[in-house]
Amino acid sequence: MEANPEANASTGQPQPYGEIFDRGYQHYSGERLGRSFAIRRLIIYSIKRGLGIKKRWTSKILPIILYGLAYIPAFIIVALFAFLPASDLEGFGFDSLYGVIEIVILIYASALAPEMLCDDRRERTLQLYFSRPLTRLDYLASKVTAMGLLMSTIIFGPPLLLFLGLTFSDDSPISYFANHLTDLLKITSYGLLVSAFFGALSLSIATFTTRKGVAAAIFIIGALMLQGIARSFYEAIGEGSLRGYLVFISPPDFIDSLRRWLFRTDSQNDLFAATDLPGVVTLIWLVVVIGVAMFLMHRTYLQED
Amino acid sequence: MASDSGRYVFETDSFHKAYGPIVALEALTVRVPEAAIGLLGANGAGKSTLIKGLLGLLEPTSGSAAVLGMPVASQGPEIRQRIGYMPESDTLPGDVTAADFVGHMAEMSGLPTRAARQRANDVLYQVGLNEERYRLMREFSTGMKQRAKLAQAIVHDPDLVFLDEPTNGMDPQGRDEMLDLIRKIHNELGITVMLSSHILGDVERVCDYVIMLDSGSLVVADDIANLRSTTADVVIRIDGARNGFMAALRARGIEATESGSEIVISASSDSEFDAVRDAVVESGVSLRALQPRELTLEDVYIRTVSGIERHTRTEDRAVAGGS
Q1: Of the candidates A84, A217, B217, B234, which lies 20 to 30 Å from B82 by C-alpha distance?
Q2: Which positions in chain B touch A127 (Cβ < 8 Å)?
Q3: Region B23-35: what's the mean pLDDT?
Q4: How far is A191 from chain B (nearest CA, A)?
């Protein structure tokens, strides 16, 4: 405690500036918010870690590059629509934007899923989470939600930006918005479905290894290898309606066919251009893949000690 | 499970955990009162299995357990909200600061964000990491990591905290400081502590009550004071001709053993003390000390475990002979 010699001149007694108390350990008597709060905080914490927030600057490089690669094409297309006549831009739209950013989505999923799961298992932090009120299912649900939200920012964000750009660059924004509401619905549906598909696949792979690089490599190389195998079989089989189902073993082509079905556009993918599978079959396959991936994740985490 | 389970910190009823043919815990039945509890046993004795079972992280093969009066099987999350756990292994993420991580763990226990941050700072100060709380944990020494693990275990103000080998890998000074800290947590902060260790000295220094496990079986569970008093040994210290005194004792039918500068006899009644008095007079030595021998926890452990082993070997021989 220090004294202020100038204070209280009338009494001549030095007065204290203030006092320092050692409060010691205080028992906590405030509110405890329970599991749902813990789940929400784990989702936010996981999102921050996925984006490299409060981590080394090197952890921020990849997210920045990928967000740049995903959003810049949308800005360019909006700029083109703003400055060029619409007749010169026939064929430019959401489908072409997705065609450009699909590889970014693939890389983002491969990098993000290991960030969500591998560190906690490699550093054995899981023990600390599970010694809290959180259950294993809570933990997994939080990670899946965080992954889904981050994936949607890169899948849903750029086309939404494009949609808004096109709306406001139109002569009559309100009528454009009213006439193109179905586009918004398609963007949302596609964003949700692809987030869930790539998220489930990449997360399920990340549950089998504690090495982030290995998980990312397995996902990307696996996807490209499956694409190669599917195309080889497609060529080998020749004519026949059954060969269209090969799209289901190739994740990049499956996403391509999903987009084609949702946006009712011709595929840029020559190989599967002839395939005309019913949309409901595509949806069923999507649900099956997500279901199997979630089952594998849950089973792996139930066995974790 | 007993209806009066609220009186116990935890209790188990035939709690059995096996991994295939390997039995990690064998039908453990124990009721543990509020105290600084020591969980003793060699590596592989089942200590960590018991802790994980009480946390609800392991499902028992059979039997049941209750912690703080709540059954583990049905109220795991509620129990874990009131429990802290410091695992044996290194469990801290390297690329996070201690303040961020301990605050995050407080949130995981349900504390609102602001309170979690405040308590993380307070608790890190209490465990001696005030200056280092904004450093990445990968830069921490083993001792600092142990302190950070302890901080995350008590940040949410638990009623009971499980500490699994908290002095592992620490140098003697760090170990002393950690044990002082644990003792302080129990005595001053009023948090019930269960210290799991294979180091008898650690448990002896911090705990009032001990549970000893050996190969998954309960050896003993009792107050340390009770265990220490269950001896009939008397220590004698004399000045003078030791051989003459020993001979005088033997002449009176008393078996005495030399232990360093001391002589130890077994005295179950006053007659042995009379015999010592007479032997002192007869041999002309000076009696410096005559006192009951205080057992260390190590003595208790060796006696009880070796007693079990002898008993098991006898049973094995009986079975072999029978067959």
Answers
A1: B217
A2: 57, 85, 87, 89, 91
A3: 92
A4: 30
